[in-house]
């Protein structure tokens, strides 16, 4: 809009200049010619100046328009930055809110810790009070013990004094005893003779009584001797029975040991024969598996846009040994050996495709179905040394599409030599 206003202003300026140049009254011929020439010169100069001014104004207008465009772009960028800033402000607000919630949680935890510290302080105060009570009780106990020690010392001093007094009395009594013993020593021989006579008489009476009792107890002695002999006989018979049972047990244990040794020998022989049979069966299984591993698979529906990684052949013609998986498109070797693999692919129409036979991720050989003609065929074969568990599959190198029919044309085969 501003550019149109400026251009209209520029168009108005020269018209006003022309009107000023043509105004006035007509004069005579010579003066008119001179004035006309001078006016034409002035008019030309004015036109030149006008063109210069117009060009400068046009440049200024273009520069102003560029500045306006740049201002618009800067405003859009500033709006974007403002929008981004608002997003950042909102995210910061969210973070601030999260920080506030975390701060609130920390405050609550701090309050809990303060409460716990208060409880621990109260417990420590209680423990200090208990320690003070224990120290006071200990001082009281020490005082009590000291008092008891003092009382004991006092009592021991009084007891010692009493003992001294008793010792004195004992010494007096001992003197009296010495006197009495002297008197006894004087009268002992007579007493001994009297006592010996009384003792001999008593012994003689007791011997007579014993003899009488022995004569009356002969029947009891005979019965005791019979019982002792019977007990000896029972003991000997019991020992004989125990020895017989022990010998029988030993003989039976020896027989069981011999029988177990024989059964162990039979078992070891059976185990060795089973081991030989297992080895023979494993060798036979290896031979059978080696001779029966082979597969042929294919696809039965064409595709003009297939550009995947692994080409899966879902149609199984033969899969001896079940080494090929029609779900993953991979063949896994069931045993060690040398295998032969063959792949054939037809491209769809004017497309091209290159396929690789891959062993454990390593590309071995490649087929080429070029697009120089329609439905070009690419084939290749690989002889590979595989170990149990190795995998082989067909992978796309470049290109797209494959062609086939209900009877497979694009196929993948392999077998063990």
From TrEMBL:
Residues 68-116 form a coiled coil. It comes from the Eukaryota. It is found in: Secreted. This is C1q domain-containing protein. Its main location: secreted. It comes from Magallana gigas. Residues 288-417 form the C1q domain. InterPro entries: C1q_dom, Collagen/C1q_domain, Tumour_necrosis_fac-like_dom. Keywords: Coiled coil, Secreted, Signal. One of its GO terms (cellular component) is extracellular region. Residues 1-24 form the signal peptide.
């Amino acid at each position: 809009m501003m550019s149109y206003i400026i251009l209209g202003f520029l168009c108005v300026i020269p018209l006003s200049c022309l009107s000023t140049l043509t105004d006035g009254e007509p004069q005579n011929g010579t003066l008119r010619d001179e004035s006309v020439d001078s006016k034409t010169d002035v008019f030309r100069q004015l036109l030149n100046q006008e063109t210069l001014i117009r060009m400068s104004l046009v440049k200024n207008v273009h520069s102003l328009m560029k500045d306006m465009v740049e201002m618009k772009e800067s405003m859009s960028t500033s709006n974007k930055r403002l929008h981004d800033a608002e997003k950042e402000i909102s995210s910061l607000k969210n973070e601030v809110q999260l920080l506030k919630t975390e701060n609130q949680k920390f405050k609550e935890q701090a309050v809990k810790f303060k409460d716990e510290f208060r409880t621990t302080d109260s417990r420590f105060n209680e423990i200090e009070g208990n320690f003070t009570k224990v120290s006071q009780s200990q001082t009281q106990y020490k005082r009590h013990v000291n008092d008891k020690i003092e009382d004991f010392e006092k009592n021991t001093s009084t007891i010692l004094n009493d003992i001294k007094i008793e010792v004195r009395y004992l010494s007096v009594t001992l003197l009296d005893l010495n006197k009495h013993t002297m008197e006894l020593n004087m009268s002992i021989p007579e007493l001994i003779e009297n006592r010996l006579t009384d003792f001999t008489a008593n012994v003689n009476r007791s011997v007579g009584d014993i003899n009488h009792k022995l004569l009356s107890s002969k029947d009891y002695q005979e019965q005791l001797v019979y019982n002792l002999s019977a007990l000896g006989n029972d003991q000997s018979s019991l020992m004989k029975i125990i020895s017989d049972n022990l010998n029988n047990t030993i003989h039976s244990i020896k027989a069981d040991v011999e029988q177990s040794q024989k059964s162990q020998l039979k078992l070891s022989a059976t185990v060795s024969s089973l081991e030989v049979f297992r080895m023979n069966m494993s060798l036979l299984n290896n031979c059978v598996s080696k001779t029966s591993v082979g597969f042929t698979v294919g696809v039965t529906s064409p595709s003009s846009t297939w550009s995947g990684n692994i080409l899966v052949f879902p149609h199984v013609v033969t899969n001896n040994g079940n080494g090929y998986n029609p779900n993953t498109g991979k063949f896994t070797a069931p045993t060690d050996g040398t295998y032969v693999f063959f792949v054939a692919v037809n491209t769809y129409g004017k497309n091209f495709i290159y396929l690789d036979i891959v062993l454990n991720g390593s590309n071995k050989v490649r087929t080429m179905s070029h697009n120089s003609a329609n439905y070009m065929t690419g084939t290749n074969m690989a002889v590979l040394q595989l170990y149990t568990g190795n995998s082989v599959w067909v992978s796309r190198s470049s290109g797209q599409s494959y062609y086939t029919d209900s009877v497979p044309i694009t196929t993948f085969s392999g077998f063990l030599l």
